[in-house]
Amino acid sequence: MEKRVKRIIGFLILSIIILGTVFLVPFTISLSKGGFEDPAVFNQFQFYEISAIIGFVIILLGVCLEFLIRKGDDRYGSGVGFFGIGEKPHLKFFKRFTAVQLTLLSLIFFSTLFLIASTVTGMRTYTGLSTLPKNQFSLTDSILFSTFQIPFAENLVAGAVIVIFLVLLRILARKYNLSSGNFIVLAILISLIVGIFGYAWHNSVYPDSEISLLIVFIFWTLGGFLTILTGFFMVFVMMHLTNNLFIDLAEYTGSIEAVFIYIIIGLVLLVILYASVYRGRIFGDSSRLK
């Protein structure tokens, strides 16, 4: 019972942070600009807000359903990829980490990964991105919009896709008495559906993008896989967020190299913070597995 209460509290806190980010970003930018004069810009913000609401409602319904239906939990678990770190079908290893620790670790890992990829390959993005007009909005405005609102909103919709198929898979697993192993394999394959969704989303929302659709598919598939692997929504968000941040920095400065030293300093500070806070449990706390 205590574990379920903690998951409920964690779900509520994470939900407040996510929805707060999605709605506070346009509000903050609007205040700084005295409102949005261009209807196209206003509609752009609204699109992501509505997408976020739809995604979150589906996730909420899925979470409630899995909490109400207890049958088969010992075999199939109740995790739906939102706030069920290490719960079945997610990998138990990640129970070693707290939500904050896993978020910070993901931020460090993906920042490092995208920095290396941007520097070595010169590639700036692995997914589509809406941007604000440079003549009206500052770099801060753009970072708030594309680095925070877009990833949270798009990932809520992707999270809804994961929830829908995990719930359906559990219904079928209970009906046909699937083994735990088969259930986990099928759950992992849901990441391919997330990739297909990302492909379709990109075609719809970013029709003029020149990014390879294969790369988009791989990006979203990997994000879905990491979500199912960990059971934590914020891992894919950090992957998405850092990708978008590097695009913005490259767009406004002309190249990643122009802010390379600042990124390195930021990464070093993050690593020092992580090592200081989680001294003795850099790779998690094994006692949490009990």
- How big is the Rg? 19 Å
Return the domain count: 1
The succession of helices and strands, N to C, reads HHHHHHHHH
Total helices: the number is 9
Low-pLDDT windows of residues: none
Helix content: over 70%
**Terminal Cα span:** 15 Å
Largest sheet: none
Number of strands: 0
State the shape.
Answer: globular
Average pLDDT figure? 91
The portion of residues forming beta strands comes to: under 5%
**What structural class do you assign from the helix and strand content?**
mainly alpha
What does this structure look like?
The structure is a single chain. The chain has 290 residues and is mostly helical. The chain has one domain (2-289). It contains nine helices and no strands. Helix 1 runs antiparallel to helix 2 (39-68), helix 2 packs parallel to helix 5 (139-176) and helix 4 packs parallel to helix 8 (233-253). The two termini are 15 Å apart. The model has no long low-confidence stretch (mean pLDDT 91).
